[in-house]
Amino acid sequence: MPEENPIAEAPAPEAPAADASTEAVSVEVDPLEAAKAENAKLRDQLLRTAADFDNFKKRSRRELADQEKRAREDFLKDLLPVFDNLERATAHAETATDVKALADGIGLVKRQFLDTLSKVGIERIKAQGAAFDPTFHEAV
Prior knowledge:
The protein is about 75% helix and about 0% strand. It is mainly α. The protein has a domain at about 30-120: Hemagglutinin Ectodomain, Chain B (Alpha-Beta Complex), CATH 3.90.20. Helix 2 runs antiparallel to helix 3. The protein is elongated and about 100 Å long. The relative contact order is 0.04.
């Protein structure tokens, strides 16, 4: 019969159990610190996001204002030749003896003006004498 080793059958000492209670105390403190750190991180992200959004709104307003300014400038550049021709017609009207030629010149300036307006999408609608149609007319 083989001899039994009394040391091999003895239960192991419970030293790790003491370490587990120490870890439990430190684990209880760590979640609080982790929550505080997470709170600080989220607060920082919120402040950064709010600042980014504020900057986005300012940039969008500035870009919209710049776009409106460019559109006005382009429209006025298109109207300048009409204005120049109207000034020429006015200057010619003071010395003109031929009324027919003057009327033809003013008609050409009017045509140029209407062409310029249609180029930017403005068209005349027939409203005088027509029944009110809310899809085309605006009540004033």
